[in-house]
Specification:
The structure is a homodimer.
Chain A (H helix, E strand, L loop, with lengths): L1 H15 L2 H8 L3 H8 L2 H13 L11 H17 L4 H8 L4 H27 L9 H19 L7 H14 L13
């Protein structure tokens, strides 16, 4: 069933996704689809929740910059994949409240799992104790999302690595120290 | 006319925006609206192009971090304003190709105008010659867009300043040097 949603979404985007087309593709009875999922938003929320229900772990390359670069390459590849399923799910989150909530749950879970990248860097003494893991992870990944999802500039092969390097340099310079240094408002 | 589009967009969002409602609110004849703008995407593209046709200049506070923080506060305020016109225009850019192109023109123009922030910092010897202005500006602003537009986490008052400080620290550490240092892929 969820495969049918993904296939329809990849082929037609959110605007072409209907309960009827999903029912037809999956072979599940139309009435069952409506009873169980209610509307397209319900289907998308289930797809997103299922995507998060996996054993994914962030890369473990032995260095902070390496981990962040590998993570950014995964994000880059997901956002530029064909068919554009991840991009279509993000676009759908602007349309459906259920998809919005599910997309936010998925991101929250992914960022939480990624915090181990920062813990390992602290254990290796690459970073000071008390580094704000979430802020560092958002700084590292945000340029990839911003360029590919909002600015929609052509993806450069350097983007994942450059964003990782920028965040790692800033982290070494104390940008994510907790509590923030004086002068940081 | 464009005021009517903004008012409708702020009140109803993209899904509630129709040629007829804009015609009714503006007092322009329906047939004229259709002839001149074609569809809602055409209206939104005109709104976005008009928004960029102004004398806006980036903040000039005397320091790189100050300029970036002030810029981020402007972005933060625009993205969290009520009615949520900027947010609605960004959401619309996922739906309409014309709005997408116009939104990208607007961002391109704004980032180009902001490059003077980096030039001034180079002139003050805050940054080395050959700093990649665009990459620095994207790194500084991306966390604000990412958190407010995609992650939709509650905006913290520290977000604009922290993102500015992170980018300024990374810039001082050579993250945006051109050509990139060895090891940057």
């Amino acid at each position: 069933m969820l495969d049918a949603v993904l296939a329809e979404l990849g082929e037609r985007g959110y605007d072409g996704l209907t309960m009827d087309s999903v029912a037809a593709r999956s072979g599940v009875h139309r009435a069952t689809v409506y009873r169980r999922w209610g509307d397209v938003g319900g289907l998308l929320a289930d797809v997103l929740d299922a995507a998060g229900d996996d054993a994914w772990q962030p890369p473990d390359t032995g260095s902070l910059e390496g981990d962040l670069a590998a993570l950014n390459r995964e994000i880059h590849d997901a956002l530029t994949a064909q068919p554009p399923i991840v991009a279509a799910l993000i676009a759908a989150s602007f349309r459906s409240e259920q998809a919005d909530h599910a997309q936010r749950r998925l991101w929250e879970d992914r960022y939480a799992r990624c915090e181990v990248i920062v813990r390992r860097a602290v254990e290796r003494a690459e970073l000071p104790l008390g580094t704000d893991a979430r802020r560092l992870l958002i700084a590292a990944t945000a340029p990839v999302y911003h360029q590919l999802v909002l600015l929609r500039t052509p993806p450069g092969p350097d983007l994942p690595g450059q964003a990782a390097r920028t965040a790692a340099l800033a982290a070494s310079a104390g940008a994510f120290a907790v509590p923030p240094p004086a002068g940081d408002t």
